[in-house]
Amino acid sequence: MATLNTGDKVTWKWGEGVAEGTIDTVYTGDVTKTLKGSEVTRKGSESSPAYLIKQSDGTEVLKSHSEVTEHEEN
């Protein structure tokens, strides 16, 4: 999968279902964010970035490139 860009819609496995959101920021280096009171770290690189993703309810999540899939429009 090619790298994704700001504004791209993505999905990822969450529990027994699938969550989705829109990429807000792309990180090509290591990044640590405090989300919902917990510190979350992802290792990003040029070939495998980390993404700050905003869900429709406003919740933000930090995911590695390998954790997400580009959302397929139906």
Can you characterise this structure?
- By secondary structure, the protein is mainly β.
- The chain has a domain at 1-42.
- The chain is built from no helices and 7 strands.
- The chain has strands at 9-14, 17-27, 31-35, 38-42, 50-54, 60-64, 69-70.
- The strands form 2 sheets. The chain has a 5-stranded antiparallel beta sheet, with no helix packed on it.
- The chain is globular, with a radius of gyration of 12 Å.
- Residues 60-74 have a biased composition (Basic and acidic residues).
Short description:
By secondary structure, the protein is an all-beta fold.
Number of strands: 7
State the helical fraction: under 10%
Q: N-to-C terminal Cα separation, in Å?
A: 19 Å
- The assigned structural class equals mainly beta
As residue ranges, the low-confidence spans are none
Strand order of the largest sheet: 6-5-2-1-7
Shape: globular
Please tally the helical runs, counting DSSP H or I stretches of 4 or more residues. 0
What's the mean pLDDT score?
Answer: 94
Radius of gyration, in Å, reads 12 Å
What is the N-to-C order of secondary-structure elements (H for helix, E for strand)? EEEEEEE
**Biggest beta sheet summary:** 5 strands, antiparallel
Tell me the fraction of residues in β-strands, as a range: over 45%
Topology of this protein?
Layout: E1 9-14, E2 17-27, E3 31-35, E4 38-42, E5 50-54, E6 60-64, E7 69-70
Antiparallel strand pairs: 1-2, 1-7, 2-5, 3-4, 5-6
Region (Disordered): 38-74
Domain Hypervirulence associated protein TUDOR: 7-68
Organism: Planctobacterium marinum
